[in-house]
Design brief:
mainly beta; seven-stranded mixed β-sheet; 0% helix
Length: 125
């Protein structure tokens, strides 16, 4: 059973960059497609990006295409979200999520069974 811990959030000015990390612990990281979601105060949780177990297929929401990049570590023990050209509307708590024994990336939060506690990203104007 996998446990997830996010890191890398913080305060940044508009136009700046952050790199979020999601580290797996507690068990072997195996056959898990991964996703990033975010939730701003008063809003529903929304999909940001996802990646297959192999890392060969990725999905992005339209608002972050060309600015954000999701990737996996060389040993597939961690997942990263590189965020460039950040905007104030990117401000939210960002959550890492994993599917259990499924390799296909998905934008549906209902298919992810393991979630991290989140990391705060704040973009100032």
């Amino acid at each position: 059973q996998v446990q997830l811990v996010e890191s890398g959030g913080g305060l940044v000015q508009a136009g700046g960059s952050l790199r979020l990390s999601c580290a797996a612990s507690g068990s072997t990281f195996r056959n898990n497609a991964m996703g990033w979601f975010r939730q701003a105060p008063g809003k529903e949780r929304e999909f940001v990006a996802a990646i297959s177990w192999s890392g060969e297929r990725t999905l992005y929401t339209d608002s972050v295409k060309g600015r954000f990049t999701i990737s996996r570590g060389n040993a597939n023990y961690a997942v990263f979200l590189q965020m460039n050209s950040l905007k104030p509307e990117d401000t939210a708590v960002y959550y890492c999520a994993a599917r259990t024994s499924f390799t296909i990336a998905s934008m549906n939060p209902g298919v992810y069974s393991i979630w991290g506690q989140g990391t705060q990203v704040t973009v100032s104007s």
